């Protein structure tokens, strides 16, 4: 038998190299091992040129399940079982998956679409909604937004700045004299909230501004990470200066952690004016089940820091007196229902199992014993989704959207959405409206997608909805553009 005819490319390596250089781009790419893996394993669903087919395009800048390299890596490695994306962890090495992510990024760059353009109009179920950029520049990782009146708002930036917006204009000077924060990982300056009587008599809460932030001690671990924990203070802003500071909550120093994630932290007030704030489990998941520890909890204190007499662990015998609920993983949304006055919390799960909870004094929300969560290794966190004595979420997301800030709709702007919960998702870059009736979520409508990581939601006195984004660091304003005629 004669040997099969060999193409010139391999017959003369040097000539082959020259020809390869002269060949058009696509064939060169075929030499890339990642391109070959893509063609073999992914093209059948995502399209030969990555522009979609049975599954979505990966070059249109739109990512449903997270846009960061770490999100892509996770989705390829563990799959997204709920929607039929297979898991490649068992068949591809980490290096091969990294190669695929690079390959996808290069294709995306070539297509020139980093993210879809910002919409100016949304067509939602009830309204045509106008979208405008409210603050388009000058912010760095904005974390929280709250309104003092129709004209005045406060914004925190995670690196440690408190900013004031007047008449839609961001004061270029941050408020001076706010405390140093531990700006690392997920930590920094987090929540800003105003006293329920902010515009009233200074003798009765007038002018108080509440902040939560990650506070570090001098004590460091061997990698140089200081011990830190969420802390709550209040003060007043006078002539753009932070004054009258009072410390409201500080955890025992023995409970501080050297991790820099899962700090919580939101603040909200109930109709009696008591202050609720959240601390995540700081990466120590079992701590969430121990009411004697501050992390993995929602706390309740009076506005001056004292412990309400009817707190579930008020006497300190079985838990920290400030603890209101426990078994919470990383609560980053806390909102008071405008009618019932109940406290609603949103909480990050791991890869699955983000939750909306309705908080009850002394209740255990189950983390990590019962959860709909899927761990980052693709395994369920717990065999149990329910257990006696542990609360069920009102609603959950799987896969997780990385649920963050939330706010109840109120005011004139969107009357059909009165008392609906607007929630943001960081990872999935989504803004969703949860229609709530009788303490249940009746349906969920996605309002925005792929415009940026949604960190917080705020409502102004008129009822317009504000969306605080990270990457890009801007704030959007949603107003009523007319009732939808569609039915
Ligand atoms: C059997 C079909 C199928 C195959 C094969 C497949 N995928 Fe997917 N993939 C999906 C589906 C379905 C989704 C969910 C989104 C959608 O509907 O397109 C998805 C989602 C994704 C996402 C998340 C997209 C986003 O919007 O956040 C990434 C990244 C991804 N796939 C990469 C890959 C890679 C890389 C391969 C090859 C190793 C691959 N997929 C193979 C079906 C497939």
TrEMBL record:
Q: Where is the signal peptide?
A: 1-29
Segments forming domain Cytochrome c? 29-108
**Originating species:** Pirellulimonas nuda
Q: Which domain of life is it from?
A: Bacteria
Q: What is this protein called?
A: Soluble aldose sugar dehydrogenase YliI
Coiled coil spans? none
Recall the GO molecular function terms of this protein's record. electron transfer activity; heme binding; metal ion binding; oxidoreductase activity
Q: What EC identifiers does the entry list?
A: 1.1.5.-
* Gene of this entry: yliI_1
């Amino acid at each position: 038998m004669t040997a099969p005819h060999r193409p010139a490319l391999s017959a003369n390596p040097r000539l082959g190299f020259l020809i390869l250089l002269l060949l058009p781009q696509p064939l060169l790419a075929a030499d890339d091992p990642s391109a070959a893996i893509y063609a073999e394993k992914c093209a059948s669903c995502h399209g030969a040129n990555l522009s979609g087919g049975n599954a979505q395009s990966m070059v249109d800048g739109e990512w449903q399940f997270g846009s960061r390299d770490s999100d892509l890596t996770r989705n390829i490695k563990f799959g997204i079982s709920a929607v039929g994306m297979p898991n490649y962890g068992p068949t591809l090495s980490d290096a091969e998956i990294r190669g695929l992510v690079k390959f996808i990024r290069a294709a995306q760059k070539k297509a020139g679409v980093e993210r879809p353009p910002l919409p100016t109009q949304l067509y939602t179920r009830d309204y045509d909604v106008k979208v405008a950029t409210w603050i388009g520049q000058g912010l760095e990782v904005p974390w929280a937004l709250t309104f003092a009146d129709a004209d005045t708002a406060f914004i925190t930036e995670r690196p440690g700045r408190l900013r004031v917006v007047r008449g839609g204009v961001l004061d270029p000077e941050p408020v001076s004299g706010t405390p140093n924060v531990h700006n690392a990982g997920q930590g920094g300056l987090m929540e800003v909230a105003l006293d329920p009587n902010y515009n009233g008599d200074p003798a009765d809460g007038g002018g108080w501004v509440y902040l939560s932030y990650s506070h570090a001690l001098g004590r460091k671990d061997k990698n140089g990470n200081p011990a830190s924990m969420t802390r709550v203070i209040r003060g007043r802003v006078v002539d753009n200066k932070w004054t009258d500071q009072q410390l409201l909550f500080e955890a025992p120093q023995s409970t501080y952690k050297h991790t820099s994630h899962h700090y919580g932290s939101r603040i909200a007030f109930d109709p009696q004016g008591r202050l609720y704030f959240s601390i995540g489990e700081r990466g120590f998941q079992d701590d969430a089940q121990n009411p004697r520890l501050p992390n993995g909890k929602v706390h309740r204190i009076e506005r001056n820091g004292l412990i309400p007499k009817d707190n579930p662990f008020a006497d300190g015998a079985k838990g920290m007196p400030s603890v209101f609920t426990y078994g919470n993983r990383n609560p980053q949304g806390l909102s008071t229902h405008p009618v019932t006055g109940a406290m609603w919390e949103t909480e990050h799960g791991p890869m699955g199992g983000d939750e909306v909870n309705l908080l009850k004094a002394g209740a255990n929300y189950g983390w990590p014993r019962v959860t709909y969560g899927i761990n980052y290794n693709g395994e369920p966190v717990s065999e149990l989704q329910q257990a006696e004595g542990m609360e069920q979420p009102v609603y959950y997301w799987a896969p997780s959207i990385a649920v963050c800030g939330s706010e109840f709709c109120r005011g004139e702007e969107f009357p059909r959405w009165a008392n609906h919960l607007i929630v943001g998702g960081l990872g999935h870059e989504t803004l969703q409206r949860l229609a709530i009736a009788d303490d249940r979520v009746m349906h969920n409508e996605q309002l925005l997608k792929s415009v940026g990581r949604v960190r917080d939601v705020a409502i102004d006195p008129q009822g317009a909805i504000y969306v605080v984004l990270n990457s890009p660091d801007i704030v959007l304003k949603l107003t009523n553009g007319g009732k939808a005629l569609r039915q």
